[in-house]
Specification:
The chain is an all-beta fold and 61 residues long. It is built from no helices and three strands. The relative contact order is 0.33.
């Protein structure tokens, strides 16, 4: 996983917040998701790798 820190700011109500962007991938079979199906042409319907992309904002409590 790759995490990029976006910065810290104070919103109009005085709350301190931080932003992050998170990118990565996981293998779904490592979590027990082993089912699969094939198309009529023989291609897989679901990939083993699942791409993750998050934009997160957290507030100081």
């Amino acid at each position: 996983m790759a995490v990029e820190f976006g910065g810290i700011m104070v919103d109009p109500w005085g709350n301190t917040k931080a932003g992050f962007e998170i990118n990565g991938k996981i293998n779904r079979k490592e979590f027990g998701l082993n089912w699969n199906a094939l198309t009529e042409a023989g291609g897989m319907v679901v990939s083993e790798d699942v791409k993750l992309h998050f934009n997160a904002e957290v507030a100081r409590a």
